[in-house]
Amino acid sequence: MTEYEKMVSGHLYHASKDDSLEPLRVKAREIIYDFNMTRPSDVEKRKTYLKQLLGKTGNNFTIEPPFHCDYGQLIEIGESFYANFNLTILDCAPVKIGHNVMCAPNVSILTATHPIDPEIRSSELEYALPITIGNSVWLGAGCIILPGVAIGDNCVIGAGSVVTKSIPANCVAVGNPCRVIRQISDKDKQDAEKRLSLY
């Protein structure tokens, strides 16, 4: 099994002791550099760079520079994805993001992690666990999504939350560690409709 195969399947692997991983990271960083240096009016150029970088995209998506990731090819984003400034995705394992997802500034989605045992950790072994984010999710400013987490459809994750465990669908969840504080209800829809009536 190659180091890449170990990495994407959740096994311990050496990120720096396999000649096949470094070129993938360098390729991603070259594209990211070009993307992050685009002018604000270069909307189509940005999309072209992101389609070269990411494993799968919808037709309608926006990521505001600066953006950072490890490989890019392990990231899938759905239709109508929007990410504000400073999105970071460490995609050492697959990251799957659904449709109509919004990321506020400074969101971090982190699949990479290290062994707790100091002896094993000092050997430079690491591992990664996949992250899945459902449809119509809103990640508030400064959210940190940790390895192995799944966030269900329609969730709102409050600003500054550290999501250490999976969150079920249709929830508002906040905090460090992030926890569910309530279900999304008909009242939320009524409140939104009331605001729309003033629009």
TrEMBL record:
Record-linked Gene3D superfamilies: Hexapeptide repeat proteins
Keyword field contains Acyltransferase: yes
Signal peptide: none
EC number: 2.3.1.-
Domain of life: Bacteria
Segments forming domain Maltose/galactoside acetyltransferase: 4-59
Keywords of the record: Acyltransferase, Repeat, Transferase
Pfam families, alphabetized: Hexapep, Mac
MF terms (GO), sorted A to Z: acyltransferase activity
Family note: Belongs to the transferase hexapeptide repeat family.
PANTHER family: ACETYLTRANSFERASE YJL218W-RELATED (PTHR43017:SF1), GALACTOSIDE O-ACETYLTRANSFERASE (PTHR43017)
Protein name (Swiss-Prot/TrEMBL): Acetyltransferase
Species, as recorded: Proteus genomosp. 6
